[in-house]
What we know:
The complex is a heterodimer. By secondary structure, chain A is of the alpha+beta class. Chain A is built from twelve helices and 31 strands. A nine-stranded mixed beta sheet of chain A has the order 12-11-13-10-14-15-27-28-31, sandwiched between helices. In chain A, strands 2-8-7-5-6-1-9 form a seven-stranded mixed beta sheet. In chain A, strands 16-25-18-23-22-21 form a six-stranded antiparallel beta sheet, with helices on one face. In chain A, strand 19 and strand 20 (425-430) form a beta hairpin. Chain A is globular. By secondary structure, chain B is α+β, with helices and mostly antiparallel strands. Chain B has helices spanning 10-26, 32-42, 44-47, 56-65, 95-107, 136-149, 153-162, 169-175, 183-207, 234-252, 260-281, 286-308, 331-335, 350-360; strands at 6-8, 110-115, 118-123, 126-132, 315-318, 320-322, 343-346. Chain B has a four-stranded mixed beta sheet, with helices on one face. A two-stranded antiparallel ribbon of chain B has the order 5-7. In chain B, strand 2 (110-115) and strand 3 (118-123) form a beta hairpin. In chain B, helix 1 packs across helix 7 and helix 8 packs antiparallel against helix 11. The model of chain B is unreliable at 1-51 (pLDDT under 50). Classes of the chains: A alpha+beta, B alpha+beta. Chains A and B meet through helix 5, strand 30 and helix 10 of A and strand 1, helix 6 and helix 11 of B.
Amino acid sequence: MANPPNPSVLGPYTAWMYGPGRAYDFFASDRGRDPHYLSGILERPGGHEPTPAPNPLSGAGTTAPLLAPSLWSGLPAPRFVPFVMAGKLAHDIDGATLDALWRSADTAGVTVPGGGGLGPQAGSATAINAGFPVRKDDVVETATGDLALSIDPAVGTSKPIVVIGIIDDGIPFANHGFDGPDGRTRIDACWMQGMAPDGSGRVRFGREVTGGDITALRAAHGADEDAIYRAVGALGGKGRAASPLIGDIAHGAHTLGALAAGSDAQVRIVAVDLPPAATWDTSGYGRDMVMLAGLHYIFDRADKIAAAYGKDTLPMVVNISYGYSGGSHDGGTTLEAAFDELIEARRAKAPTGFTLPSGNMYLDGTHAAADVSAGEAMTPLPWRVAPDDRTSSFLECWLPAGVAPEDVAFTLYGPGSTYGGPGPVAAIIDGLGDAGTTQTASITWKAQSVGQLSIDQGRSGRWRYLIALAPTDSSTAGHAPAGLWKIVVKNKGSASILLRFWIQRDISYGRGFTGARQSCFDEPANQRFTKEGRLNEDDTPGAMTARKGTLNGMATGATSLVVGAAKGWRSNAELYSCAAHADEAKQVEASAMVTKTLAEVGRLSGGVRSGPRVRLTGTSVSAPAVGAALRDLIAEQPAGASATNYADALDQAGLLKDVEPPTPDRLGRGVLE
Amino acid sequence: MSGFSGFQGVQGVQGVQGVQGVQGVQGVQGVQGVQGVQGVQGVQGVQGVAGVHPVVESQTTAFSIRHVAGQAPIDPQDVSEDERTNDQQMKYWADPIRGFIYVADFMKNYSWQTADDKVTLRWGGKTMLTLGRPSIGLLVDQLDFVTEYMDLRPDRGSEVLGQMGSLSGHYAYMLGLTPSRHPKTFELAELAQLLSSHTVAIPKHYLTVRRPDQLDGRLMPMIQTPGHGSFPSGHATQAMAIATVLAALVDEKPDHFPDAAARKALMFKQAERIAQNRTVAGVHYPIDSYAGAFLGREVARIMVASAKARKNRMEKLKEQTYTPTNVDYFYDDFAGMPEGAGEYRVAHSGPMAWLWKKALEEFI
Lengths: 673, 364
């Protein structure tokens, strides 16, 4: 069947969201019904130079200023700049309009807080990585970027001050677990990205809660932490959903509890609480903008803390317990490259650790690798799509470096049987591929469009096919059939190629119930259980489905310290704890004990309110534990220690215990108790 | 985040839910007044030891041995009367009978006047609390809150089920109460719940407000929809009455607890949570909780005032008014609402004074 190419400068996820997928996911959600502004990350290979008067983005009948959040001054001409586009509502924009708008971005500049801007260099082509829209009434159109810090007299000069930064969802800033020994909070700044602004104008969207604010809120509301969260709008109402802080346990409460463990007043905390939009869609799509803005904020506030205590700069550890299962896994995604740019620049000034989880999808059957000989087609790869899935399903296929799409034919078949042949052809992209645009083809089932197959070139030069499949829930209009879809890629070139496939995470997470259901590869050759009946932690020779290669696709940048999760027996790795493919540069570097015995499942850390301790499993938990260990020794690290992202430093300090049998691909250099 | 973690251990609590689920099956909770009485009966556990009551078997014994008691008539001069000053005879009566007396004694002062858009509740003929009736538009607005609170059902499930009957146990652990040492304090708390149930039935009846799930089928409450009106919330009434009466008890013995303020804060927080849990469950709007809190606080204030009032001197309490608006329910907001300028008066109640004194004696 012939599918005409439909070139667009929108990325394939954005093309789906604003195009055929508009009836699902963000725009169909309860929380997506409020007015939202467009957002994204502008990338200019030559960097963004300071300019007195930035040009607005104009095109498609729209002129709108691009507003940057607080950017770290240590990177004066950043390549990557997050922005919110004020004045035009996402709901009023269709895919074609957005495409035309993004095409006009080459001349646009970004307004920075406090006035002035960052502008394009002549001839510098611009790419935009679209973010989830930002709620209109969260946006502060006139931001000043100023911050008044209250000095904590408990912070002395005898010991080094260390800043810890965290980006997560559900940061319980009023929790006394984050206090110093005298009861003053150690949180100097917390950016609540999804809260209503408070009029101070210090952050571009949401609101900032400073240490001084926390002291004042405690004075005003007494010991009732619920009253404090309600006062800043975190418990919902006024047309807003409640944040995770309404519950007893929250992801951010646990991760920050681990990273901030203890009550040392020399440990200063800067936190970023992500907006609800960042956690609804577990594929991770659309989250890059708020993440990058969050890291700029953390670095900026860390500099202000340093200045407040009379220092030029301070050592720091940042933890982000989030990830993608997809991505090029070569450090080349926009967010990984943007993180690397920031962290490398900061490491030039002060020791800066950056811990990320290795991922929890080791046994979920969401990765496959297929070696396809020249002139051959691969064995059909079976993709099991669950029924009653109320969100889109996404599957990425990446070609190896140097392989051109002209030499590849990608065919998707509709549901067929497990052992028999595939069902009818649903979409083909044969020999297409255009640098700089996304080409899409419709996925059809019984003459109806039920998805989008696309090809685009990733930032690192490798080509990606993306399947975006409509929900399978039968009450959704235009729903796709559930069942066993199959993928066949033919290698028309003259050398064999190693194809990599990743299915994006697709679960209901947190407080909003999205009705997401995870799809997986369901390949009979993959032995999921051992002869003893245990879950098989080894890959099966001859099967395409591979556990090795499931590493967090947001953690493969050069500067991240990738952390796995350990348990106290048998393989020593928690069953879910991911590993990289042997060919990949980025491997798991360290790990922390999460489940010591069968009776102690999960690592202890804090709940939302002061006092309770809860157990949580996952590499989300082990990453900040390693971050906390690094926090205590990073101040003494020489510049060269960052070459191994401080994994060697942790090991040389005796913190990473060897385990038997050795499990380096999943636990790195050893296990932190 | 997206699958990068899984909470453990919390699920263990759900095991308890299964047990408590049995309570839900009983279906007795609709007749909460009866349960309230049983709450008072619950104190019998202590006295039940002496409750052996042989009748028929002993009659043969009676006829066989009565001769040893002789033939003399009873001389009225020899009879010493049972105590009956200051309602001291309360100590003679069985628990459910005391319950009947408290209720009858309380209700003799309670009356009401209804209008299309409000009900005026009176005490001793004077206005005690005026409750405005919510419009359908306001109820629809409030559905947003009920929908949002659905997210908390996994967290609050065991509490919701555990709070379907007697509530005093949910406060007992804030005051270190135990039935052997504090039987009358339990009786006071149970009575606050019992009187609340009787009192709240009247505005529920006359205002006739539909439950949230009777407006929006998507709410699907986690417990059976109660068979009475939504506004005010009976749970909010009971929970606030218990917290208020126990807080007054704590105030009366300021030296008993070293941390009295903290304990009172916990009890009012608990009252907030019990009311909110009914919204989580999907059976109440936040405005129901406000109306219930207003009523429960007055029930408790009347209990305390009638216990403390001297026999010939009325205690004065402030007239209250609640007109619902579209906000979420929080105790702080309730406590900050203005009280009316008008007054109503509460006379001495012998049974209440007796119980109050007995409860106070449990806190030396």
